[in-house]
Write a structure and sequence with these properties.
This protein has 271 residues and is α/β, with parallel strands linked by helices. The chain is 52% helix and 14% strand.
């Protein structure tokens, strides 16, 4: 099953073969440096790529949303953002996938961009969060070239795309929440000149200081979901239920000995 963008094979021979996790191809990077190397090579080669941070909720939703499943099977690279994805890989293949979280990759890319003098564009979040994120990121990375920005409250996407292209940004980060941000990038990718695009969820709010990241212990063990549940039990209960359903379905497919895509799309997603 060929589920990856062939352009990636053109610019690097070191890209690991993706693993089929619940119908979605996930690239098993072992280190952030390896992922950064692939991004750097694509930028130097001028090849446009679209990266997605993959977690169990996103895959679960894709099982019930064919358009999203189709999108995730056509992206350049899907990285293992959630520990549940790693556990699913362990169940299927006897090996987990090291986590390359979207938020941490975002920060590491900003550090690399500041050294390489790449231009970045920040799209999304509220006007206040976008502005605060820019200020704090510029303080953290003095050499960072933030060449453009736009909060998430806009009506004409064509004007935003024109602004992105006029800025000559090399990297576009979109913070609209998932999967809205992935749909937006996918819909407009052919018109966006930025070489690298990635949705970063609440990373602007984190950078702005509006959202607190899980303590280092939770991040190191991949249990941020437990921290969020402890802090906001009512708000996060639905996510915990979906995680349990995700793992149950993974075990079910393992027992059935099936890796086919079709069995995943079973019933409509409950909203």
């Amino acid at each position: 099953m060929n589920t990856t963008d062939t352009s990636l094979r053109e610019y690097t021979d070191g890209l690991p073969e993706p693993l089929n996790v619940g119908g979605v191809p996930v690239v098993p990077f072992e280190t952030y440096d390896h992922a950064l190397q692939c991004i750097e090579e694509s930028l130097e080669a001028g090849r446009k790529t679209f990266w997605v941070a993959m977690n169990p909720i996103k895959i679960y939703r894709a099982w019930h949303e064919p358009a999203l499943m189709g999108l995730l099977r056509k992206t350049s690279v899907n990285i293992c953002d959630g520990v549940g994805v790693s556990i699913a890989s362990k169940i299927f293949y006897g090996r987990g996938i090291d986590r390359i979280t979207g938020c941490d990759l975002f920060y590491r890319l900003l550090s690399l961009a500041s050294r390489k003098r790449w231009g970045i564009y920040l799209l999304g979040a509220s006007p206040e969060s976008n502005a605060a994120a820019r200020m704090r990121l510029q303080e953290r990375y003095p050499d960072l070239r933030i060449v453009g920005w736009q909060d998430g409250y806009f009506e004409d996407p064509n004007k935003v795309i024109e602004d992105i292209n006029t800025s000559k940004a090399d990297l576009l980060f979109v913070a609209m929440g998932s999967p809205k941000q992935e749909y937006w990038i996918s819909s407009h990718r052919k018109d966006i000149n930025a070489t690298f695009c990635m949705g970063v969820g609440g990373s602007f709010d984190v950078a702005a200081g509006k959202i607190r990241r899980a303590p280092r212990l939770f991040r190191a063990t991949g249990t941020e979901f437990l921290f969020r549940f402890i802090v906001e039990p009512r708000k996060r209960l639905a996510s915990q239920v979906i995680l349990a359903q995700f793992l149950f379905r993974i075990i079910e497919r393992k027992v059935a000995g099936s890796y086919d895509l079709a069995p995943w799309n079973i019933e409509p997603l409950q909203r």
